[in-house]
Design goal:
The protein is an alpha+beta fold. Helix content is about 45%, strand content about 25%. It has 5 helices and 8 strands. The protein has helices at about 15-30, 35-40, 40-55, 140-165, 165-194, and strands spanning about 5, 10-15, 60, 65-75, 85-100, 110, 120-125, 130-135. Strands 3, 4, 5 and 8 form a 4-stranded antiparallel beta sheet that branches. Helix 1 runs parallel beside helix 5 and helix 3 (about 40-55) runs antiparallel to helix 5. It is elongated.
Length: about 190
């Protein structure tokens, strides 16, 4: 499995773009509902609950990172200010995986007004409930591998932590949005079939 990451500048804004994306998905589902799906008060309430459970966000919580695999490689080290002569060097490439629970969507948007700092440039985007990162270290030591992993994951952690703060407000708005849209859709269907 290959790691999946993107540059922070390619992500869309959580407060501006996420709402539009989410509401578009909700609208598609609501428009597909038939009168018999929501005609009775109990059915309408059930649909509201179903839609809220399907589209509401859950805060992301990370499990501890785990070393999954490693390989030893020989790499060419070029000329530099500190070293005038190119040479070959053995390194270890370590695959580290970190699981998480919560909404995967929180990885695909950048927080509003975020200060990006200097060396933080990309965000790891999971394809399931696991993030995969490959790190290169000079010595086969767990603490070195995990330190490099944490350094690479810093922007991802920061983005998700900031986006987690947004969840309560978006879920409250989502609940109101679903309720209003379903009521309006029911009214339209009743007008059509009356």
């Amino acid at each position: 499995m290959e790691p999946n990451f993107t540059y922070h500048s390619e992500l869309r804004n959580i407060e501006l773009d996420f709402r539009n994306d989410l509401y578009s998905k909700v609208d598609l589902v609501i428009k597909s509902l038939k009168l018999n799906d929501i005609r009775e008060t109990e059915l309408l309430r059930e649909q509201k609950d179903i839609l809220y459970k399907k589209f509401s966000l859950k805060k992301v919580e990370f499990s501890d990172p785990k070393i999954f695999d490693h390989t030893e490689k020989t790499v060419n080290v070029g000329q530099s200010y500190d070293n005038f002569f190119p040479y070959k060097k053995n390194i270890y490439e370590v695959e580290i995986r970190q699981g998480f629970s919560g909404s995967i969507e929180l990885f695909s948007y950048h927080p509003n007004g975020y200060n990006y700092g200097e060396n933080l440039q990309y965000v790891y985007i999971p394809t399931s409930n696991t993030i995969i990162v490959y790190v290169q270290i000079d010595e086969m030591k767990k603490d070195l591998a995990l330190a490099e992993f944490n350094k690479r994951m810093q922007m991802t952690y920061n983005f998700v932590e900031n986006n987690n703060r947004f969840i309560d407000s978006i879920n409250k708005e989502l609940e109101q949005y679903i309720s209003a849209k379903l009521d309006k859709h029911l009214e339209s269907l009743n007008n059509l079939y009356s």
